[in-house]
Amino acid sequence: MEILRTFWRSPVGPKTTHFWGPVFGWSIPVAAVLDTKKPPEQISVNMTAVMCVYSAMFMRFAWVIQPRNLHLLALHVSNETVQLYQLSRWVKAQGHLEQKKEEETH
């Protein structure tokens, strides 16, 4: 019971935005994971790149703020991973499309 009490009173516990921000933020990487089932041609490269930069910046923020917010860090590491995967899918699809165009012209 003491563990729960300590967590409740923690500066990153459920009485703070340091807790609830990341809880709701998990919707971003969850949505990105669900998007992995879509064709790579539907990926918005601009938005995916922005999400990569956004998560990289917030990973640093989560590490340097006091108290250190490991929940926020985990959220943005997860998001960065999924967004980079989506970006790699888009790049591979673009290479495949260019290869098809070259084959059609020959």
Strand content: under 5%
Largest sheet: none
Number of domains: 1
Quaternary state reads single chain
**If you compute it from the alpha carbons, what radius of gyration comes out, rounded to the nearest whole angstrom?**
19 Å
* Overall pLDDT level: 91
Instruction: Please mark out the parts with pLDDT under 50 across 5 or more consecutive residues, or reply none.
Output: none
Q: In DSSP terms, counting alpha (H) and pi (I) runs of 4 or more, how many helices?
A: 5
What is the terminal-to-terminal distance? 72 Å
Structural class: mainly alpha
Shape: elongated
Give a count of the beta strands, DSSP E runs of length 2 or more: 0
Order of helices and strands: HHHHH
Helix content: over 70%
Characterize the structure shown.
- InterPro entries: MPC.
- Mediates the uptake of pyruvate into mitochondria.
- Belongs to the mitochondrial pyruvate carrier (MPC) (TC 2.A.105) family.
- It is found in: Mitochondrion inner membrane.
- Keywords: Membrane, Mitochondrion, Mitochondrion inner membrane, Pyruvate, Transmembrane, Transmembrane helix, Transport.
- There is one protein chain.
- The chain is built from five helices and no strands.
- It is mostly helical and 106 residues long.
- The chain has one domain (17-105).
- Helix 3 packs parallel to helix 5 and helix 4 (45-64) runs antiparallel to helix 5.
- The longest helix is centred in the last third of the chain and has 36 residues, at 70-105.
- The radius of gyration is 19 Å and the shape is elongated.
- 15% of the residues are buried.
